[in-house]
Amino acid sequence: EDQVTQSPEALRLQEGESSSLNCSYTVSGLRGLFWYRQDPGKGPEFLFTLYSAGEEKEKERLKATLTKKESFLHITAPKPEDSATYLCAVYNAGNNRKLIWGLGTSLAVNP
Amino acid sequence: DVKVTQSSRYLVKRTGEKVFLECVQDMDHENMFWYRQDPGLGLRLIYFSYDVKMKEKGDIPEGYSVSREKKERFSLILESASTNQTSMYLCASTLDSYGYTFGSGTRLTVV
Predict the structure, then answer these.
(1) B-chain residues near A46 (CB < 8 A)
(2) For A49, which residue in chain B has the nearest alpha carbon?
(3) One digit per residue, pLDDT tens: chain A, 111 residues?
(4) CB within 8 Å: B48 and A98
(5) Which of B89, B79, B84 is closest to B16 using CA atoms?
C-alpha cells in the first residue's frame, strides 16, 4: 500500500538551531515529491517539488533533498517565522492525479 | 497574483442543513480538489474534478457531492450536514498535478 510517513510529529528548536525533517515513502513509480508549509488556520503553501533521487532544491533557509526511500527538509539557522506545519506528499504514476499525504511535522522555533 | 478563493473563512450551520462551499480559481487549471483536514487524520480527499462537468470520488465522498459547471468554479455540497462534518475544508487546483495551489480554507462548524 502506498504510504507517506513524516517524522518527527513535532519539533521544537531554538532560533539558529539547525535541524531536519524526514518524509519516508513507499510508493510504486514515484513521479514527484512535494513539500508544503501550512500556517495555523490557513491552506498549505507550496514549497518544493522533487522528481528524482539525488535532486536538491533550496529556498532561503530551507533545503529539500530526495533519495529513493525518503526526503529531508533541512532548516538552517531557523527563525521564529519558520514556525509552521510542514507537509510532505507524493504523486505516483498510477494514482490518477491524487496526492498521498503525510500527517506533517509541527515545527516551533523559539526566539 | 494567481489564487484559489474560497467563499467563506468561517461557517456555522445546523444539523440537517444543506451546505454549499464555493471555490474559484483564476489560473485556468483543469484539475480541482476538495479536501477536509482534521487533527491526527491529515488531509483527506473528498472529491476531485479534472474537467468541466467531470467528477471523481476521493477517499471519503460519503455525505458530500460536487458540482463543476464552469472550469474556474468547483462547489462542494453537504447534502444534510452532520456534526461529524465539522472540519476545515480546503480547495486546491493544479494544471498537471504538480504543485497544488490551495485556498485559505473554510472552517465549518455543524451544531
Answers:
(1) 99-101
(2) B99
(3) 789 999 999 999 999 999 999 999 998 888 899 999 999 999 999 999 999 999 999 999 999 999 999 999 999 999 999 999 999 999 876 666 678 999 999 999 999
(4) yes
(5) B79
